[in-house]
Each structure stands twice: as structure tokens, then as C-alpha cells.
Amino acid sequence: MNVQREGRDGPVMPEGRGYKMRGEGATTVAVTPEKLWAVVMDERRLAAAIPGADTLHRADAEGMRVYAADVGIGVGRLKGVYRVTAEFARMDAPTAIDLFGGATGPFGSSRGEGWVDFAPVPEGTEVRYCYAILIKGAVAIVGGRLLDAAAGALIAKFFARLATAAQEEADPAQP
Hints:
Blueprint: E1 19-29, H1 33-40, H2 43-49, E2 53-58, E3 65-75, E4 78-92, E5 96-105, E6 108-121, E7 124-136, H3 138-141, H4 144-170
């Protein structure tokens, strides 16, 4: 993925010990970037897209859009509710979001940076993303393959649900 921010080729990995996870990908959503952006900026519709979200609310701080959620996450036998935050550090509507975030729960914590880009394509919007996350605690001991697979599954489910929320908004006549 050839995305750059401020001369950087990718999100910066937080310093520290733990499991370091990097990822990137892309998916296409059959709505315009503006409609997709509207879903991401609306906590009610965004909450519906987050797998395992028990709650989601705005917790803006220092002029920055911040979302906080309690999310049920499980990796192998390590399942629990994590407090997840996402700080939207830079927003370029409707094309790009740079965010910092993390999670804290019963089996560990994480902190990282991510970039999300929305690009118009004939089919709707191509969503490109990349991230760098440092995971600490018992969940980090689980190991790379299991964590990477779990992250991939959560991301795929999130974007599928986000697409559904955006498409329902685009066609309110749908049941």
C-alpha cells in the first residue's frame, strides 16, 4: 500500500516490549466516500459496525474527536470486555483519518496508530487501511499467528458491518 503521511511510509510502532503487530488492507464499499464518512462520524451507526461493542460514546478531548467503547474481544481462551479508545488525530473529510488508539482489559493492553483512506472508485469507495499496534500482557503471549488471525477476522467483520450500515443509510427503504 503506497500511502504516506507527513513523509512517513506507515504508522509508527509504539515503543516498548510486547507483540508488535502491523497490518494493512483494502476493501470496497458500495456507497460514496461522503456517505461512508457520515457513518464513521455518527457514533450510533458506527457502534452498529463494531463487532462485540457493548457501548460506544464520544469522549472528545482537547478539540480531538475521541470514541470510547466497551468491546467483547476473545483470542483463544482469553476473552473479556476491553475499554477501547480511538482518537481521531487528523481528519480530512471525506478522504482520510489518522488515529491513535488502544485497548485495556483483563488480559492485557494495546496501543497503536492507524491510517484509513477513502477513495472514490466506480463501485463506490475503496477503503485502505494500515496500522501498527503494540500488544502487552497475557494476550501478547498467545503469539503472532493467533493474534494476526483474530485481528484479520475482526477487521473483515467491522468493514462488512460498516458497509451494511452505509448501504442501509443510502437506501432507507431496505428492511
